[in-house]
Design brief:
The complex is a heterodimer of chains A (328) and B (341). Chain A has 328 residues and is an alpha/beta fold. Chain A contains twelve helices and 14 strands. In chain A, strands 3-2-4-5-7-6-12 form a seven-stranded mixed beta sheet, with helices on both faces. In chain A, helix 1 packs parallel to helix 7 and helix 8 packs across helix 12. The longest helix of chain A has 15 residues. Chain A is globular. The termini of chain A are far apart. With 341 residues, chain B is α/β, with parallel strands linked by helices. Chain B has one domain: Thiamin diphosphate (ThDP)-binding fold, Pyr/PP domains (Rossmann fold). In chain B, the strands form two sheets. A five-stranded parallel beta sheet of chain B has the order 1-2-3-7-6, sandwiched between helices. In chain B, strands 4-5 form a two-stranded antiparallel ribbon. In chain B, helix 10 links the parallel strand 6 and strand 7. The longest helix of chain B has 26 residues. The model of chain B has no long low-confidence stretch (mean pLDDT 96).
Amino acid sequence: MPEITYREAIHDAMVEEMRRDPSVFLIGEDIGTYGGAFGVSQGMLEEFGPERVVETPIAELGITGAAAGAAMVGMRPIAEMMFSDFVLLAMEALANQAAKARFMFGGKATVPMVLRLPGGSGTGAAAQHSQSLESLLIHIPGIKVVMPSTPYDAKGLLISAIRDQNPVCFVEHKLLYKSKGEVPEGEYTIPIGVGEIKRPGTDLTVVSTGIMLHRCLSVADRLAQEGLEVEVLDPRTLRPLDTEMITASVKKTGKLLVVHEAVKTGGWAGEVIASVSESDAFNYLDAPMRRLAGKDVPIPYNRLLEEAAVPQEADIEAEMRALLTNQY
Amino acid sequence: MTEQIPFDNQATDNFLEKADSLGLDNARLVEMLKTMLRIRLFEEKANELYALGKVHGTMHLSAGQEATAVGTGFAVRKGDYLINHHRGHGHFIASGADLEKMMAEFLGKDTGYCRGRGGSMHIADVTSNNLGANGIVGGSLQLAVGVGLAAKMRKEDRIVLTLFGDGASNEGIFHESLNMAKIYDLPILYICENNQYGMSASVNRVSARTPFKYRAEAYNIPGYYVDGNDVLAVYEFAKRGAEHARGGQGPFFIEFATYRYFGHSKSDRNLYRSKEEIDSWRTHRDPIIRFEGNLKDAGVIAGEEAKVMEQEVVKEIDAAVKFAEESPEPDVATLEDFVYA
């Protein structure tokens, strides 16, 4: 299988879907000649023209509202926020319009749109260009939130998101754009709401996604050399959440750690842990369930401070070891 | 600051000649009056049902603004997109709403347009390109650009009738929407229904410069300021705007000056305006009294015809109320339906 980058996987998904379906179009800032702030849409203006690669003014509410409106009349827009932070300017269109239209209108509307959101820290872009806002998004019924961690997942999930009949927030991690992975050529889909066991294990369940998943996997590999078998799960979708996969794993390992970059308070780890608490998997627990998440601070500029604000491999390793050695 | 500038519509000496020049025959004129009556009486009935506790929540009545609803509604075609605002009962009725489904929605019934999930503020009929009333001031302005893009991409012979008010004209999205509509030259007919108050905020107190047509001009969009209580003038400009947009010339903007008789919503005690002001509009500028007078003077209707028309409308509304009252409530077991497709 050919290896391509996460960025190319997202690009390919968009291009293939636009070739297949004339109702799919891309809308956002600097997505044309510039190729998108992170280069994801390079070459798309040349192939599809300005009617289907709609370059906009800097108007995030306008972009997202336009996507919602176009979707309500049968188009399948892919809207790009240059940075996921800017979705805060667009929350009105996303949360009050796109998410609610179908329900408010008694099931008579569909809003098949994708909102692509490059998020996460680690680029030195500081507080307004580094947030992980996915936890905020999952609180809104009517939208789905997808967060791929590999090129393979990114392509398959984006194709599914484009074909989905609902508004889907597609959270990309900026640090992953250059990461490579095997991706088959041509079309395939990964169902939204279905997670994957990225690494099987028996001693501890770790749930993570995005860049944090890679850190967890790397720590898990190291621990395996000591005979400690960590099972690493990637829910891939945060809403709807694959609770079945998680509870099944917890029943097997008896221990749960959730790792995410989003700040801890109100973060989606709480949702994962609550869902296990409410399930019969609770009875199988041998230790308190733990969260390792971003600190409750805005992302700082200074490199050392920035790193300290979100979980690093050393933090993850310490937390995994503590759970594995029954220190809680 | 507010500029006291005249309306862009011209007063007419010969009503029938004017109507004729706009392609409105007598039957159409009568239908326009009847639709205005239908809106007024429907809302009065809804208000009555609210007082009886049968309408839940709140309502934003448009009484006094019937000419803008009917003038614009009659100037667009079936199949054109309609994106409404929160005070949009009149526009929906003018576009041909089924009164039974509408009243059923007001009563929260399963037979309503939105199966009781939306109510008056979110009433929609997406299957007929009516994208709904909107509870967010400026909501219609957000959606309009996307609908316009879709219409243009698919080369449809459809325009986007986009309704909003003076309040929405001070939202940031107003500027994003107009700017985007113009840079893509989208087939959007922007109708700013200036009823003088955003809740309690007098338009002149909260707007740096009025009329709003200047803001349209700032985006290189033709903008007009028109007497919104003169249904013929409304129709004339809306038709011109619809032709402009349909003809591929891009967006068109009309501000209609009008007045709402009732409060903003049901909690409004009208503390911010005088009874004299309301009475003055009701007595001297009421769009229905005025149009009915025009039709009588021109000999289009005579004697008791208006009364008969009113009685017919009352019957329609009574039937709608009966249908709504006899309709079932939504099944609570279906609460979580329609969140996702």
